[in-house]
Design brief:
The chain has a three-stranded antiparallel sheet. It is globular, with a radius of gyration of 24 Å. By secondary structure, it is mainly alpha-helical. It has helices at about 15-20, 30-45, 90-105, 125-145, 145-150, 150-170, 175-190, 200-215, 215-235, 235-255, 260-270, 280-290; strands at about 50-60, 65-75, 85-90.
Length: about 290
């Protein structure tokens, strides 16, 4: 996958007499040309992800005590007003590193996970040191091309919340499920430049189901509509039929034009008869994380 938003060449590598056009066509001095090129490069900084671990807390349970770290995910390169965060414990980092090593062992030779503490685990100074080390670890992972394109990397930030949301959805707790799913979606949208465009389909589909069952058809229609293009493009047949069916039903309810959606659904059913088991979107969503 191509890296998005790559900047121009370093102005120090360009000939200042030709950078602004043909020699003699500009009255700018060499120093001014270099300054302008440097400003252009700064304005074309590539978008990257930044990870902060600004806080942590000790969780005490009946037979267990551990530290959880708040991870804030932000985009650089432009103003990002959405500071979305999740909480992870050291064991989550350990499991991520194990999975990545299985897939990219050689590429991760210089990326080391901070060691597990055997003593002073809950000492404030030790926790602060661990926070900074884990923050640096995430930055190094993202700087590794194969990792930032890996499904394991995106799942680290979203899988726990997505599974939790689906448990709530199956229990009919749609408002609580929506809160988690919105967090998942916000993080996935930040990750999208380095992940498959189908990444957000399960979350958007689950959001559509929640909104429909909360009798908010506008929001349900919008979420399903956003999920449909990558589903069409990559041939996700189960999602496609279920999304089309939901959009047609909601479209009639909202007075939207749905003739083309209905034709697409009919053609899909006729073309895939016997090959695809047609389920409602809710059934598709529920079965995703069983």
């Amino acid at each position: 996958m191509a890296e998005p938003g790559r900047g121009s060449e370093d102005p120090n590598d360009l000939d200042p007499m030709t950078a602004g056009g043909r020699p003699g066509c500009s009255g700018l001095t060499t120093k001014e040309l270099q300054k302008n090129l440097k400003l252009e490069k700064q304005n074309e900084r590539p978008v990257r992800l930044l990870f902060e671990i600004p806080s942590s807390r000790v969780v005490e349970q009946l037979l267990n005590k551990h530290v959880v770290y708040q991870i804030v995910v932000m985009r650089s390169g432009s103003f990002d007003s959405c500071r979305v965060s999740v909480e992870r414990r050291y064991n989550d980092f350990f499991q991520l590193h194990r999975k990545l090593l299985e897939e990219f062992n050689e590429e991760l030779e210089d990326v080391l996970l901070p060691r597990k503490l055997l003593t002073r685990n809950f000492n404030p100074e030790s926790i602060l040191e661990r926070r900074l080390a884990l923050q640096d670890y995430l930055a190094k992972l993202f700087a590794t091309r194969c990792v930032r394109h890996s499904a394991h990397f995106s799942e680290f930030f979203t899988e726990h919340e997505q599974k939790q949301a689906h448990v709530l959805l199956r229990a009919g707790q749609f408002t609580a499920a929506l809160e988690l799913l919105q967090t998942v979606l916000e993080i996935q949208e930040k990750l999208l430049p380095w992940q498959k465009s189908t990444l957000t389909v399960p979350a958007l589909s689950a959001i559509a189901v929640c909104y429909r069952d909360l009798d908010e058809p506008e929001q349900a229609f919008s979420a399903a509509q956003r999920a449909l293009p990558p589903v069409r493009r990559y041939g996700l047949k189960h999602y496609r039929a279920a999304l089309l069916e939901l959009l047609v039903d909601l479209g009639y309810q909202l007075g939207r034009p749905v003739a083309q959606l209905q034709d697409e659904l009919t053609a899909l059913r006729n073309g895939e008869r016997g090959e695809v088991c047609f389920q409602s979107l809710k059934e598709v969503v529920i079965h995703k994380f069983i």
